[in-house]
Structures are given as structure tokens and as C-alpha cells.
């Protein structure tokens, strides 16, 4: 979240809109590093969510009370 907030303050903001697609219609495409930082923060958030869900599933599988043999 901090990377996403920080990307709005770098060289005038991200400037991509709600879809997070960089404007490719101009000659320079996206010349600011704010877009790169915003995309990096979304990738990090997705990776963190994936790792958290794997941890949750493994915790449930390991704490399950099974039939004792």
C-alpha cells in the first residue's frame, strides 16, 4: 500500500486511470517511474495474497484432527 501511495507523488502521479494501463497512444508512452512503481506494488500485493492463502491452506491441513490409527 505504501508503494502505491508513493507512486502517486512521483513526477505528477501515475496517470493511467482506474484500469492501470499506461497510456500508449503518446510518443513517450509512460515516461515516469510512477507507473512502474504502481505496477510493482500491484504485483507485490498479488504475491503477498497468494503466499498468505497458501499459508492459510497449509495451516488448516496441518491442524486438522484426523482419525488416529
Textual characterization of the structure:
This protein has 69 residues and is an all-alpha fold. It is built from two helices and no strands. The chain has helices at 2-7, 33-63. The radius of gyration is 20 Å and the shape is elongated. The protein starts with a helix and ends in a 6-residue tail after the last helix.
In short:
With 69 residues, this protein is an all-alpha fold.
Produce the secondary structure layout.
Layout: H1 2-7, H2 33-63
Largest sheet: none
Overall mean pLDDT stands at 79
Can you give the helix content as a percent range? 40-55%
Q: Could you tell me the number of beta strands?
A: 0
Q: How do the SSEs run, as a string of H and E?
A: HH
- Low-confidence segments: none
Radius of gyration: 20 Å
Number of helices: 2
Assembly state: single chain
Q: What is the straight-line distance between the termini?
A: 48 Å
Shape field = elongated
Give the structural class: mainly alpha
Q: Strand portion, in percent?
A: under 5%
